[in-house]
Amino acid sequence: MADAKPEPKKAKTGGTKPDLVSIGGLVVAIGGILAGMMMEGGKIQEITQLTAALIVLGGTLGAVMITTPMKVLLGAAKQFSGIFLEKSHSAEAMIEEIIGYATQARKQGIVSLEAQAASIHDPFLKKALNLAIDGVDLQQLRSIMELEITMLEQRGEAEAKVFEAAGGYAPTIGIIGAVLGLMQVMKNLANIDEVGHGIATAFVATVYGVATANIFFLPAGNKLKARLREEVHLREMVLEGVLSVVEGMNPKLIRTKLEAYAPPKAAGAKKAKGKEAAEAGAKPAPAEG
Known about the structure:
Layout (H helix, E strand, L loop, with lengths): L15 E3 L1 H20 L10 H18 L2 H9 L6 E3 L3 H18 L5 H4 L5 H11 L4 H48 L6 H11 L1 H44 L3 H8 L5 H19 L7
Antiparallel strand pairs: 1-2
């Protein structure tokens, strides 16, 4: 009885881990501002105003809702967690999975991958490989999957722009809050002490508007764009890998081709392992007595 051939190792997708860079950046930014204020003699209580926060956040949310279609707004809300959590995509693991399929297809034909394709974790790879197994022409396969990548880019850009729009509106809404505060101050001009305190309080809304825009909304939009570029980059690599499998390219050449998409660290580690293996193989065997 012939030994069962091992299935290609599948790269797991969908797992997430905390993005320590985003979390740390927010902590450093807020901490630095508060520390600087306290060193100048200020107190945290002076900027903790519920009314100012309500004006800025409520006004900004309302402006974004007017600007953005509901479907895009809901999509952006779902992407909120992506600012502080990152998906555990491994280009190296994906390359190994594709190489496994290439090796099997080269020996037994691409139709032999039909059983494995049903259990692939990554939906993009699964769809591309199923189309290849069904005998779709190479140009059509490339066109279909590139269209999917393009639509992913368009959705991701639209969702990131929601946060950028919020970053544009927040400072202006903060100025509106400051003007509303000054209007209340003008009612107490007879008491000069109250006027000074009221003016300081009125400008808290401006601080909230500028701070939320530049510490959170605009950086969040840029982070989502960075996540999008990583996702597109990975999908482009997967598409090139599947097309190479269909073309019957040598698995070693496919690996060389796909490693160009991998992060420098991953590619460097792979080369280092290959060099160590070569050096180990080159060592002469000990002479027999």
